[in-house]
Amino acid sequence: MPTIRPSHDNDVPAIAAIYAHHVQHGVASFEEMPPSVEEMVSRRAAILERALPYLVAEREGRVIGYCYAGPYRTRSGYRFSLEDSIYVNAEETGRGVGRLLLRPLLEQCSALGYRQMIAVIGGSETLPSIKLHQALGFSHIGVLPAIGFKFGRWIDTVLMQRALGPGSSLPPAT
Predict the structure, then answer these.
(1) Number of alpha carbons in the 13 Å side-chain half-sphere of residue 37
(2) Residue 155 lies in a domain
(3) Which of 99, 101, 122, 171 is a Cys-bridge partner for 27, taking CB atoms 3.0 to 4.6 Å apart?
(4) CA distance 133 to 83
(5) More confident residue, 1 or 78
(6) 123 bridge partner residues
């Protein structure tokens, strides 16, 4: 069983390689060119500077997946809402790694006082990601049809949402 832990600086090359595969072969990301390791270092640093979780799944010393929470939007009214991102090594998909990563991410974000998590899933056909989010309490809230263009075709974005902690039941602590 993989170990889930906070990411370290030396994990970034493996994180970049996992992400590059998804950029080049899938619709989970609408990027079309994989970012450099240096760019991924910068992106990870931006998440960590906000004191948000950035986790990896590791098996036998090898990073096989990662996830993190970032701001859903930058405007102040969204300050209690986050968006999750999760990527698993192509050889490890379907083995429960995503669930092992996403569950502690949700717990940590709840403990930090956030109230909502949004999943922005590339492609209506991306059933593994949709089913993963459903299994962990996310509700389908909408589809943005044909919002992205990649691999010579239009791609939908599926939006899912899950309450964190008390969700919207109490006024947020400011």
Answers:
(1) 7
(2) yes
(3) 122
(4) 12
(5) 78
(6) none
Nearest to 40 by CA among 22, 59, 58: 22
**Residue 168 falls within a domain, yes or no?**
no
Would you state the structure tokens that stand for residue 169, as one six-digit string?
A: 């039941």
The tens digit of pLDDT for each residue in 32-61 reads 999 999 999 999 999 999 999 999 999 999
pLDDT of residue 67: 98
Closest Cα to residue 15, out of 47, 41, 53, 33?
41
Q: Would you tell me how many other CB atoms lie within 10 Å of the CB of residue 90?
A: 11
CATH number of the domain enclosing 75: 3.40.630.30
Neighbours of 159 (CB within 10 A): 17
State the pTM of this model: 0.94
Paired tokens of 139: 């509700």
**Is residue 174, in this structure, part of any structural domain at all?**
no
Tokens 């993190």 label which residue? 68
Q: How far apart are CA 49 and CA 44, in angstroms?
A: 9
**Residue 65 near residue 36 (C-beta atoms within 8 A):** no
Instruction: Dump pLDDT digits (tens) for 71-130.
Output: 999 999 999 999 999 999 999 999 999 999 999 999 999 999 999 999 999 999 999 999
Per-residue model confidence (pLDDT) at position 169 = 86
Full domain range(s) for residue 49 = 3-163
Structure tokens at 127: 């059933």
In a domain, 171, yes or no: no
